[in-house]
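Re: adenosine-5'-triphosphate structure - here you go.
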Amino acid sequence: MAEGKNLVGVDIGSSAIKVCQLKETRKGLALVKLGYEPLPPQTIIDGHVMNSGAVVEALTKCFRDAGVKQKDVALGVSGQSVIIRKISVPLMTAAELDEQIQWEAEQHIPFDIKDVQIDYEVLRRRPEAGQMDLLLVAAKRDEINDYAELVREAKLKPLCVDIDAFCLQNIFEITYGLPGDQTVALLNVGASLTSLNIVAKGVSAFTRDIANGGNAFTEEIQKQLGVSREQAEAYKLGGTGTEPVPAQVQNVLAQVADGLAGEIQRSLDFFLATSGESEISRIFLAGGGASLPSLATAIERRARVPVERFNPMSKVQVEAGVNPQIAQQRGEQLAVALGLSLRKDREKRA
Ligand SMILES: Nc1ncnc2c1ncn2[C@@H]1O[C@H](COP(=O)(O)OP(=O)(O)OP(=O)(O)O)[C@@H](O)[C@H]1O
Ligand SMILES: [Mg+2]
C-alpha cells in the first residue's frame, strides 16, 4: 500500500453523506471514525447540487457528530461529469506518455479538452503489438470544482478526487482480492445512480453509470399506492412495524427491480459483445439498493450469474467510539466512502 496517512473518505450521495476514516494496523484495516448524515430530498438532482447550503450544513454536522478531527479528505465523484474509456496507444515510456496524454485524450473524449481534468492508468503493455492499454479518465472541471468548493466551505481540504466505480473496486480488492482468472461485475446501487465496474483479470475492463436506483422503487410505490414519499420509503424498507405493509408493495418492488435489472443486463451484454470476454462469473451488489432482495433476484434471473451482497465492512475492524448501528446496518452503503478512505495523502498520482 502507498505511504502516508489515510485521507478521510467523503461520499456525498444524493440520499446521504457518508464519511469514513480508516487506520492501517498490524491486524488489518480499522475504522476509527464513521459518519452518516441524510440529505433532504431534492438537495442533489442528477449529480447536480441544487442546495449547496444543505450539503455544507450536513457535511459539517456529519464531521462533528462522528468526531472527525482530520481535515484532509478524499472526495468521490460519479455520473455524467466523468468519462472513462479503455484506449490503446503506441508503446512509449512514462515520460513520453505524460506528454502525449492530452493529445491522445482529445481523440477519445467528447468534451472540450480544456474543460476536463485528465487522468490515466496503464493497464497492460503489449510489446508484441507495439501497443499499450490505458484506462483514461476525464472529469469535467466545473463539476469537480463545485463539489470541492462545498467541501472547502465546510472547512475541509479536498486532496484527492476519485470515481465511485473505482472506489468500489479498491475496497472490493481489500475484501475479496481481485481474482486473476475471473470476470466479476461490481454494482453500487445508490438512490439515484447505479455504478457498474466490470473487473477482468484484476483490472477494470468496463464502467458505466446507470441513472436509476433506490429512488425509483420509492417513487413507484408512491405512485401505485397513492401514498406519501415517507410512507413509500418506509414500505420499501419493510415497514415501520406498527402497521402491515400492503401486499401490493412486493409486486411493485419486483416490477421496478426487473426494470433496473434489464438496464444492468444491457450493459453486461454490451460488455460481453465488445470486450472479447466470454462470461461474467459473479455479480456483487453494494450500495443501499443491495438490501433489496427483489433486485438481487431480478438481476440473477436475467444474467444467469450468481448475485451476492458485497459488504465492504466485512474485513474492517470497528474501533470503539464508532457508532455500531451505522457500521452494522449501513455496511453496503459505505462502499464508496471506505474505498475513498483507502487513499493516502502522499500518493504520487491522484
Ligand atoms: N434496507 C434497505 N432496503 C432497501 N433499500 C434501502 C435500504 N437501506 C437503504 N436503502 C436505499 O438505498 C438508497 C441509498 O443508498 P446509498 O446511500 O448507497 O445512495 P446514495 O449514495 O445516497 O445515492 P447516489 O449514489 O445514487 O447519489 C436509498 O434509495 C434507500 O432507500
Ligand atoms: Mg452513492
